[in-house]
Amino acid sequence: MKCSDDFVFGTATASYQIEGAANEDGRCPSIWDTFSHTGHTVNGDTGDVATDSYHRYKEDIALLKDLGVDSYRFSIAMPRIMPTDGGPVNEKGVDFYSRVVDELLEAGIKPCATVYHWDLPQYLGDKGGWQNRDTAWRVADYACVMGERLGDRVDTWITVNEPWCVSYLSYGGTEQAPGLGGGPAAFETVHHVNLAHGLIAQALRGEVKDDAKIAVTLNLQVNRGDADAVHRTDLIANRVFLDPMLRGYYPNELFAVTKGICDWDFVKDGDLDLIHQPIDMLGLNYYSTGLVTMSGRPQFPQSTEASVFPGCSDIDWLPTEGPHTEMGWNIDPNGLYDLLVRLHDDYPEYPLFITENGMACPDRLVEEADPETGASVKAVHDADRVDYLTRHFDAARRAMEAGVPLTGYYVWSLLDNFEWAFGYTKRFGITYVDYETQERTPKDSFKWYRRLIASRELPVL
């Protein structure tokens, strides 16, 4: 299937995962600095240096130009822009992202900027973070600044990345910063992040150029198995974001299944109107599927599942069939197809785009003779990643042929990077990074993707 010229091929990164320069040019600590410096990551890894992209962004944009992408999705770090509580805008932070945007445009690459990709300033974390309703307004104020400063040049704006993780893994569970493990308290965070999405969209709309696109990125759960369990997890993991953002209400069933653990009194008059703002596209991050069944256990015991999925503690997550990635996630391209078709069926007025898709592999850097020159070169032969991406692009093709209005596809990630609580032990990049030297080496998947982009031909399996 040949893609039209307006279909967007891209790749993506996030600020805390690549930038480093944690203490430079006025940046303040984020909740991820605190989390990673207090023993919550593998090997005690932190994002202090990461891939040093704060200093090497020109080198990384040269990689993007060589790759041939139409667009690059990056995120802006609020700690660089608003480093003090109630203080002035940090012009050095604004200037950095302005230079990134200009460099992208010079390379013929459309900037796609994510406003919030998890690195909340610690001073807001100290006031309760996303459990504090005021955080939504503070993040929207920062979004307004970025819209004003970059709005004439950025093609696409994403309000929030993966509110499911921001809420359930970070405040319900302990897997991600700040790791509060509050169980049902996650629902309050869900609502405040939903509010932030609407307020950010509203703030940007008043500042950016008329043809700029505004979107949100959701990591929706695709579960198989028992129908009742699938329905319950869909309510709590997916429709809790989709329905208020795209329809202006929370489903009544959600209140029924969470009765006794959450009274939803944090939803104030007018909130749903604020959340339900016009957006131009819906972004999806997709990696794998789950397998669920009703367990028959009593409701709401204290368990890991109860904290990460409050309201689902009588559901079991079963092992999935392989193969699996280095993250332990199953490889199920049909899940992407099913998700795209379902979203088009349920919310047909919204164009879709894939804002992340990729695979962690046990990549190994080798030195070998160049077949043409005989010179010694470095290489990474990541055949599993090439196969993974081929199968998922094929799933996207099938969805498009079924009528899904898919407008773009961003591979995760341009670079190996700091993989959150897993530190530097998991590699998702299509470019290998030697963390000792910061040398970048394009992998076979980079070269495969470059050929795909050049041909604009989606694979057929």
From TrEMBL:
It is an enzyme of class 3 (hydrolase). Its EC number is 3.2.1.21. It catalyses: Hydrolysis of terminal, non-reducing beta-D-glucosyl residues with release of beta-D-glucose. Substrate binds at Q17, H117, N161, Y287, W412, E419, W420. Keywords: Carbohydrate metabolism, Cellulose degradation, Glycosidase, Hydrolase, Polysaccharide degradation. One of its GO terms (biological process) is cellulose catabolic process. SUPFAM superfamilies: (Trans)glycosidases. GO terms for molecular function: beta-glucosidase activity. GO terms for cellular component: cytosol. Signal peptide: none annotated. InterPro entries: GH, GH_1_N_CS, Glyco_hydro_1, Glyco_hydro_1_AS, Glyco_hydro_1_beta-glucosidase. The active site is at E162, E356. Belongs to the glycosyl hydrolase 1 family. PANTHER family: GLYCOSYL HYDROLASE, LP05116P. This is Beta-glucosidase. It comes from Bifidobacterium samirii.
